[in-house]
Amino acid sequence: MNRPHRGAAGSRGLGTMEVKSKFGAEFRRFSLERSKPGKFEEFYGLLQHVHKIPNVDVLVGYTDIHGDLLPINNDDNYHKAVSTANPLLRIFIQRKEDADYSAFGTDTMTRKKNVLSNVLRPDNHKKKPHIVISMPQDFRPVSSIIDVDILPETHRRVRLYKYGTDKPLGFYIRDGSSVRVTPHGLEKVPGIFISRLVPGGLAQSTGLLAVNDEVLEVNGIEVSGKSLDQVTDMMIANSRNLIITVRPANQRNNVVRNSRTSGSSGQSTESSLPSSTPNILANFLQGEEESDEEDIIIEDSGEPQQIPKAAPTSESLESLTQIELLHEPTQNGFLPSNEMNLNHSAGSISMEYEVQDPDHKSLEEDGTIITL
Amino acid sequence: MRRFLRTGHDPVRERLKRDLFQFNKTVEHGFPHQPSALGYSPFLRLMAIGTRSGAIKLYGAPGVEFMGLHEENNTVMQIHFIPDQCQLVTLLDDNSLHLWSLKQHSGASELREEHLLYLGTESGNIFVVELPSFRVLEDRTITSEAVLQRVPEDYCNRRSCELVEALREHPKNPDQILIGYSRGLIVLWDLQNNKVTHHFLGSQQLENLYWQRDGSKFISCHYDGSYTQWPVSSDNRHPEPLENFVPYGPFPCKAISKIYWQTTKNGLPYIIFQGGMPRASYGDRHSISVVHGSQQIAFDFTSRVIDFFIIFSSEPTAEFDDPSAMVVLAEEELVVIDLKTAGWPAVHPPYLASLHCSAITCSHHVSNIPLKLWERIISAGSKQNIHYSSMPWPIDGGTNIAPDPPQRDLLLTGHEDGTVRFWDASGVCLHLLYKLSTVRVFLTDADPNDNMNPLGEDEWPPLRKVGTFDPYSDDPRLGIQKIYLCKYSGYLAVAGTAGQVLVMELNDEDAEHVVDHAEADLLQDQEGYRWKGHEKLKTRDGPVRFEAGFQPFVLVQCQPPAVVTSLALHSEWKLVAFGTSHGFGLFDHQQKRLVFVKCTLHPSDQLALEGPLSRVKSLKKSLRQSFRRIRRSRVSGRKRRGGSGNASEVRAWSMQGPDYTVQEANAKFDQDTLQEMELAPVQRKIEARSAEDSFTGFVRTLYFADTFLRDSSRHCPSLWAGTNGGTVYAFCLRVPPAERRMDEPVRAEQAKEIQLMHRAPVVGILVLDGRSNPLPEPLEVAHDLSKSPDMQGSHQLLVVSEEQFKVFTLPKVSSKLKLKLTALEGCRVRKVTVANFGSCKTDDYSENDLAVLTNLGDIQIISLPFLKLQIRYPCIRKEDVSGIASCVFTKYGQGFYLISPSEFERFSLSTKWLVEPRCVVDMPEVTSNNHVHKSGMENAVRKSSTVLWWDKLVKHWNWYP
């Protein structure tokens, strides 16, 4: 979901870019190579250097085109900041110890007065302990409820984002039976249920899944008629981007559909089913792509080899993913026209094509970065 | 728009698919699992075998096979052919009778005569049933009261007519039948007058009866190990026995359960009987004794004797029986003894081979064997079979009308005892060609020369071991795990349980030579690891004598001696690659030098380092879960399919867990599993795989390819390895040219390493050439049997993991397309092979596809190079884990899998290559038309009540001839 924005930097590339950085009352101006912004750590060091605050822990923020104050604390949002700055990148630096986290967020810059008043009356905001949401160095979505507008109210489609191996998915499934309404009346049919949540696991921490929830679909594929082992294998195969549709055991917390605030996929309640189907597809297609490019390829390593740590490689792969980004702005899962001349006559949703056009070639040559 | 194109079906392709693919289970090879009954028709010269799962199989001349299955899946107790008819009656253990007939397709009208079936019951009454209507003729019932009328008072008091033990029709006079009751009373019954004509007052518990050919005498055999001859003449109505004899006395003996009296021209009869061994010292033997004058041999079988019959002259005009062969159905094998040749040697059966003489551990199929190699293997095998009789196969009914097999195919099976058996798998009869043993290379506890002492002349009883079934392995480390045969060069690589890899060469002569020995330390510098598994095998020092055939010349032993999990041989480069759970290595068998080893262990993988012992606990646990699963699927399966094949479901598992017997397992289920399921339901953990998982270093596949590994201008030999953790290693090889092959070393350098992010085990690696065809096998091009690969276009790499198929570009490895199997269907790849499919419509079209077997037992065909699912067939039940594990595909779209420890099911995915029985049984002329045919069934219905009741009595079944 956050990928489309990640790094259009490469495609724009208009030489240098002006940066205006504010720390306390001081301003610094300098320029950055727009096409090669570098890493966040380097930028952070640069800011400390230009403001002459080498050993001060600071929070970095910038104003985006909507005037919102957004944090810069990892490579992703740093690149995003660089790519969207037009023409000037405004940076705001705060000391970590007296940072005001509530300053970040939507409408923050238009609420500036409020921010000021908060700063002026610190005792006021102490009363409301705030949740730090932007501090983790790798700020990433953990889970989401999707397709609320097209699913029956009794169902819930949950997406779990699994990055790396730090936090286990942490749930178990079992066989069971549920009651269905069929043309012949009520019928008991076998079903798959969540049997256990591991404390501290991803599934539990989202609060979106619970014991005895019935699993209806895994990444868009119905589980009815499939065995427990099959469903297990499907979930594990999709574990990097798992979308489970459940019928929650507790039906009291269901999202009420005609409440306008609930639609997470941003569509209005009027959207009819056919028009939103491609949306699901888009989700799945995106999921497909997401898990793919990450195969690590190491070439010509003559030295004693270890499986490299994920960090440097995935970072360098980031530049490779740009190839994919060219396709991303397309809508509803349609692939862009340059892919249509592929002479592969057929394919299926599960397949992915990589186009071998000249642009990509040149990018692939750049792929030497990944050569260790 | 593209999306619509994708989902739409291409009608041209759909038509082509119909011409290319078709799924058939064609024939079962091997020995029927749990045989329970045997029948033979001297008229048709066909043999019938019934099994405990209700199957009935007919065999005649090689290639003549029929199979049927009783719907009830009950044990077949007895099989009786109806004389002079293509029909047989079976009795199941649910007391039902079934009539089967072989229908002719020629349309000739069938002559139906009245046949009567005599059923002896436990109550002592004999019922007469008319065939084919199965109508009971009540007025002809022979009641025990009628039989006892003229029996002397004192005899009658002592014993009543308990159950009917034997019924035998008089050989000359069909109006008389001999009835034997279990307590010893035998009567001759006249059917015309409905009365007893003779009483024979036996004093021993009766087991069986047999008429002498002329009807003047009969012989009875008894529970105490004796047999008795009785005269039959019209003047004496209460004859005394002529002779009573205990062949293995004087100490108490076991019962003689069946006896034959066969007359010969020279006057000396053959007396052939089952059992009768001295109870104390030989009571556990499964024996059949043949006595002919002064010659006597007690054939000692390796498993329980189910039944046997004698093939003798069946011409009614012939004066003597003149037996020619004895056919014995034992529980685990079929043994045929030639009674014509001096010494009574065994006959090599052309079918019904005991595949499981030692448990099958792996199999390997090689298609299209060059004639030269084929002949050399046969000649090596014939030297091993000199002790067999030269008699033509005596069961020769029916005619095989199948065309000659299109090519010569070999199926190689590896066994637990360290042997490799070479089977002719070209046609319907799976026939043993040659047996190779790797044991001689190693020092084992049991010296093969120790226990093979021939029995001394004066030993009594004169036992002689017959048969090949020997499930006991001296040393489990000898077990064969991987086999690779190069059909062009005759090089064979065999790898086993204790990390041993043998490279062999075919030699037509006996030879004595030293086997070069090397060790491959796969752990290299990894420190602090402890191998808790078995030790490596000790090798024999000095030269070893090898018989003609495949003779090992190189032995590589992996260290630690873990089971070899993958093997590849390149006969052109003279390289062999092998992998275990620790890593893989490459050996140059020309220079006899280890080229390199690579450790694939993840530092955290403690389990792999400790060896198999530490896994015992988890194995037990998984076994228990599997049983639970089986149980559940059995319950649900019964609802769906009426419980077909339940016995085999459990049976499949009994192979896996040696300390579980089926009964134990069943009992356990019945008691607690269901309740246990209520308390603690089976649950599965959902967790992404990580690098820290166990056995990620396990090498699953090895592959040699001449391709573009480094750059797109020069290709070079390469070795590819795939692991359980989803890693693919590619090594660039430098093989010196032929003229300097011995002078320069082979060099290897790692060129690539691919870590699949989904981390599923890599089960197959394949390189496609510029025309997207798989690279040919080594030496295939040199022998003009394949076009040379296209080296102009860019090559592609196909990596098959358990979950996905992915095509990468070469030399720059980038993902091109993929098929996600598990994510979409929840099934995992178990076996994958490239197969060539020819069209049944045109001779000039063929294509290569992937044949895939999944863990659900489905077979899928996936196109190359676009990875499109073509077609899917359910093949093996998903509970049949051993069946799925045993499956091998052939190069031309056929396959084999074990349906029991002793049987391969053969299937075909191709419309073009189909090996299935095609045969006819011609009805021989009926010689005597006025003869009323009767078939005696002894001891048929064991029910305590006098009322016979059976459901679904009549079964007409058409066999496709």
Please describe what this structure looks like.
The complex is a heterodimer of chains A (372) and B (961). Chain A has 372 residues and is an alpha+beta fold. Helices cover 26% and strands 23% of the residues of chain A. In chain A, the strands form two sheets. In chain A, strands 6, 7, 8, 9, 10, 11 and 12 form a seven-stranded antiparallel sheet that branches. In chain A, strands 2-1-5-3-4 form a five-stranded mixed sheet, with helices on one face. Chain A is elongated. Residues 1-13, 106-127, 259-293 and 301-372 of chain A have low confidence and may be disordered. In chain B, α8 runs antiparallel to α9 (646-656). Chain B is mainly beta and 961 residues long. Chain B has a five-stranded mixed sheet with strand order 20-21-22-23-34, with no helix packed on it. Chain B is elongated, with a radius of gyration of 32 Å. Residues 1-7, 106-112, 449-457, 613-618, 632-670 and 926-961 of chain B have low confidence and may be disordered. In chain B, β58 (858-863) and β59 form a beta hairpin. At the A-B interface, β8, α7 and β13 of A face α1, β47, β51, β55 and α11 of B. β8 (171-182) of chain A pairs antiparallel with β47 of chain B.
Outline the fold blueprint.
The complex is a heterodimer of chains A (372) and B (961).
Chain A (H helix, E strand, L loop, with lengths): L8 H4 L3 E8 L2 E8 L6 H11 L7 E6 L5 E4 L2 H10 L3 E8 L16 H9 L1 H5 L16 E4 L9 E6 L9 E12 L2 E13 L4 H5 L7 E5 L2 E2 L5 H10 L3 E7 L25 H18 L5 E4 L10 H16 L32 H9 L6
Parallel strand pairs in A: 1-5
Antiparallel strand pairs in A: 1-2, 3-4, 3-5, 6-7, 7-12, 8-9, 9-10, 10-11, 10-12
Chain B lengths: L1 H6 L3 H10 E10 L4 E7 L4 E6 L3 E5 L5 E5 L6 E6 L5 E6 L4 E5 L13 E7 L4 E6 L3 E2 L7 H5 L4 H6 L5 E6 L6 E6 L3 E6 L4 E7 L4 E6 L5 E6 L4 E5 L11 E3 L10 E7 L7 E6 L3 H4 L3 E7 L2 E7 L3 E7 L13 E6 L3 E5 L7 E2 L12 E7 L4 H14 L14 E2 L9 E6 L3 E6 L6 E7 L4 E2 L19 E4 L13 E6 L6 E5 L3 E8 L3 E3 L2 E6 L16 E2 L4 E3 L2 E11 L6 E5 L4 E5 L3 E6 L4 E7 L6 H5 L5 H26 L4 H11 L5 H18 L3 E4 L12 E9 L8 E8 L3 E8 L12 E9 L6 E7 L27 E6 L2 E6 L5 E6 H5 L3 E10 L7 E9 L3 E6 L5 E6 L6 H6 L1 E2 L4 E7 L2 E8 L8 E2 L13 E8 L20
Parallel strand pairs in B: 9-64, 23-34, 39-42
Antiparallel strand pairs in B: 1-62, 2-3, 3-4, 4-5, 6-7, 7-8, 9-10, 10-11, 12-13, 13-14, 14-15, 16-17, 17-18, 18-19, 20-21, 21-22, 22-23, 24-25, 25-26, 26-27, 28-30, 29-63, 30-31, 31-32, 33-40, 35-36, 36-37, 37-42, 38-41, 43-44, 44-45, 45-46, 48-49, 49-50, 50-51, 52-53, 53-54, 54-55, 56-57, 57-58, ...
